[in-house]
Design a protein that fits this description.
Layout lengths: L8 H9 L4 E2 L2 E2 L2 E4 L2 E4 L5 H16 L7 E4 L16 E4 L14 E8 L3 H15 L3 E6 L4 E9 L2 E9 L3 E2 L9 E2 L6
Parallel strand pairs: 7-8
Antiparallel strand pairs: 1-2, 3-4, 5-6, 6-7, 8-9, 9-10, 11-12
Length: 186
């Protein structure tokens, strides 16, 4: 019988500092999810393109003084032994040199899912809700829609709305930042 060894965020950070996740001068894509180191799914051209489009929309639709847009950077959830790396995060506009943004800093997390949809919906979204992250979007590349998750509870988000291509959506914290969903997939 095998048993996973769970680690804390501090232990994970020490492993990063020691270069444990560097393989042949290239950093392996991993994240800490509920104390377990998880290798991230490789990303392909559709995923990359949608992240680029979301990044441009995020930056263009908000003044830098109101929100900081972070692209594929970590968020610290130490109370849940987790350091996920969402595709985009909208966080409070301050410096994070001394530490990662935490749930209290996050306005919106966005995950782009082509091959990771079930993991994002069944593992990551409940984790984000348990941490108290106000809003999470899961972009379903293959389904050409966005799962908009709001109203975090300890066991998941109480509200899920599916926004189809041809519809609009805006973050609760920034209602004037309207996204035309079709622009992600055309």
């Amino acid at each position: 019988m095998s048993t996973a060894i769970r680690i804390s965020v501090d232990e994970y950070d020490r492993m990063i500092d020691a270069g444990v996740f560097v393989d042949q001068d290239k950093r392996r894509r991993v994240e800490l999810i509920q104390g377990e180191i998880v290798e991230m799914t490789p990303i392909g051209p559709p995923h990359e393109e949608i992240v680029d489009r979301l990044s441009r929309w995020s930056i263009d639709s908000n003044p830098a003084s109101a929100v900081r847009v972070r692209i594929q950077n970590s968020v610290g959830l130490p109370e849940l032994d987790s350091v996920p790396e969402p595709d985009l995060s909208w966080v409070k506009p301050r410096s994070y040199l001394s530490g990662r943004p935490t749930a209290e800093d996050v306005y919106l997390l966005i995950e782009v899912a082509d091959s990771s949809l079930q993991t994002d919906l069944k593992v990551k979204a409940p984790l984000f809700a348990a941490a108290g992250i106000r809003e999470c979007w899961i972009v379903d590349v293959n389904g050409r829609k966005i799962h908009v998750l709001r109203d975090p509870r300890p066991d998941g988000y109480a509200s899920e709305q599916v926004v189809e291509s041809g519809e609009q959506v805006a973050p609760l914290a920034f209602p004037s930042s309207v996204l035309e969903v079709r622009t992600l997939f055309e």
